[in-house]
Amino acid sequence: MRAPRYKSIVDDFTARIRSGRLTPGTQLPTTRELMRKYGVALATASRVYAELGEIGLVVGETGRGTFVRDTSLPRTMGLEQRPVRSGMIDLSLNHALLPGQDELLRAGLRGLAAAGDLDALLHPAPHGGRPHERRMFARHLRNRGIRVEGEQVLIVNGAQQGLSAAIMAMFQPGDVLAIDELTYPGMKNLAQQARLDMVPVPQRPRHGGTDLDRLDALCRRRPVRGIYVMPTLHNPLGLVMPQADRLRLAGMAEKYGFILIEDGAYAFLAEPAPPPIYTLAPQRTIYVCGLSKSVASGLRLGFMAVPPQWVADVEYSIRVSTWTASSLSIALACLWIDDGTVDRLEEGKRKDARRRQNRARRALEGVDVLSHPSSYFQWLSLPPDMRIDQVAASLERQGILVATSEPFSTSMRVPHAMRIVLSGIAPDVLEDVLLKVRREILG
Question: Residue 240 pairs with which residues in a beta bridge?
C-alpha cells in the first residue's frame, strides 16, 4: 500500500534534520510555501508540521514561523527526573537544603524512636491522615494565615497528589480549567491527563500576574469550572498577586461559580505576603501546599485545606488513588511542626534564598530577569534575536542544565526564556556559574 503523501514529506524533513543538513534554529518554509513546493493541499502541509512537532523535530512559534528544534536537548528541557552526569551543574530543579539538615533528621528519628507507639508507624495511615495529625497540619497552616479545623485538612503524599486529588474530585473530562499561560508543569500535565479543556489566561508580570480582565471575558464566554493559581510566589515567574487582585478573583469565583485551586508550594518564601485567596473565598477554594520545598523533597508530604462540603469528595479521591502518605513521614513532620523545626527551616530558607538572589542579581547584570527577592528561582528572558533551545543546548555542552520555557507554557506562545534555580549549588560558586549564563545570553 502506498504511504500517504504527507508521510513522505515528513520522512524527507526527518532525514535532513537528523543528518544535520537542516541545523537547529533553521526557519522552515511557511505552509503556503510547502504547498507550492510539494504540490499539496493546506491540510496536508499543516499535517506535515504537526507530525514533525509531535516527534520533537520542529517547534512552531506564533507570529514567527516553524523552526528546527535542537534535538540534543530532551523534549522536557531539564524538568524530568533524569540522571545528571558527573560534573554537571543542575539549575533546573529545586532541592533546597540547609547545612545541618541531615543531623536534624538523625535527631528527629531518635525522637520518634523514643516516643511511645512505634507499632502504629508500621501500619498505613488513614487516607487524609489521623485526626491528631490533621489538627497538627491545621496548626501549621496558620503560618500562611489560614485558620481551619483539622477536619478540613487532608494529608497527602506531596502537593502533587493534592493537586491530583482536587482534579479527580472536582472535575470531569471536558471541563474548562483556566490556567496561566506560564505555570507549574505538574498541573499542566495533570490537566492534560484528566482531559480537561485547558484555556490559557495571559499574564501581566509587571502587575502581579494573571490578567483578570481576560479571565472575566473568558468567564462571560464559556462555562469555566475552575482556575488554577499560584498567587504567592508564582512558579516560574516569582510573582506575588496584589491584594486588590485577590479580592477581585475571590469575587469572580462567587459571581461565576468556579472553583479556585490555590497552590501555595512556595508561599513560605514570600513573607510578608497578602493573605491567601482561601481566606477570601473559603467556600470555593482548595488550598494545596507541602513540605517538599520548605523542609526537604525526600520527606514528600503535602496537605490541603478543603471547604467542608468538599472534604468527603476529596478524601474519596485520595482513597481510590491507592496512594497515601507514609505514617513515618507524617509522624516526623508532626514532631517538627510541634517543636518549631519547620518554622526555623522556613526562616532559614528565606534568608538563604535572599542571599542567593543578591548574588544572582550581581552576576546577571544586564540580563532581563524576573524574580522575587526571596525566591529560589529566576525567569530569564532572551534578546529578540536569540533562541532558547540553542542557548540551553550550548549551556548543557558547558556542563550547565537549565529549564526552558516550553514545559511551563500552556499556550502556543512559547517565549524564548528559561527558569534557573539557585538552590542546587554551593553559594561560593553560584556567581561563577551564573556569569557563564550571562555570557551565553549577552555575549
Answer: 232
Which residues are CB-neighbours of 69 under 8 A, at least 6 positions away?
A: 24, 56, 57, 58, 59, 389
Residue 90 is classified by DSSP as E
Q: What are the backbone angles phi and psi of residue 213, rounded to the nearest 5°?
A: -65, -45
| DSSP helix/strand/coil, 288 | strand
For 156, the grid coordinates are 497527602
State the DSSP code for 100.
T
Which residues, other chains included, contact 346 with Cβ-Cβ below 8 Å and sequence gap of 6+?
A: 143, 268, 294
What DSSP string describes 232-255? BS-TTT--B--HHHHHHHHHHHHH
Instruction: Give yes or no for a contact between 270 and 373, defined as CB atoms under 8 angstroms apart.
Output: no
DSSP, collapsed to helix, strand or coil, labels residue 217 as helix
Query: 196-212 b/e with 16+ CB inside 10 Å = b?
Result: bbbbbbebeeeebbbbb
Model confidence at 74, in pLDDT bands (50, 70, 90)? low
Rounded to whole angstroms, the maximal C-alpha distance in the chain is 79
CA-CA distances (angstroms) from residue 282 to 91, 251, 253, 318?
36, 12, 11, 21
CA distance 227 to 199: 9
Beta-strand relationship, 377-381 and 417-421: antiparallel
The overall pTM is greater than 0.90: no
What is the rounded CA–CA span in Å between residue 184 and residue 282? 23
For residue 77, is pLDDT > 50? Answer: no
Q: Which amino acid is at 60?
A: G
Angle between helical axes of 327-338 and 101-114 (0-180°, round to 10):
100
Q: Give how far Cα 254 sits from Cα of 201, 225, 298, 322, 419, Å.
A: 19, 12, 38, 33, 34
> All 3 cell numbers of residue 202?
495571559
- Rounded distance between C-alpha atoms, residue 248 and residue 212, angstroms: 8
Contact (CB, 8 A) for 370 and 417: no
Residues 6 or more apart whose Cβ sits within 8 Å of residue 22? 13, 16, 28, 68
Residue 361: CB atoms within 10 A of its CB come to 15
What is residue 321's three-state secondary structure?
Answer: coil
Tell me the mean pLDDT in the region 67-93. Answer: 67
Phi and psi dihedrals of 224, rounded to 5? Answer: -70, 120
Cell reading at 190: 495533570
* Model pLDDT, residue 306: 98
CA dihedral 103, 108, 111, 112 (to 10 degrees): -140
Amino acid identity of residue 343, one-letter, is D
Residue type, 255: K
Residue written as cell 505576603?
Answer: 273
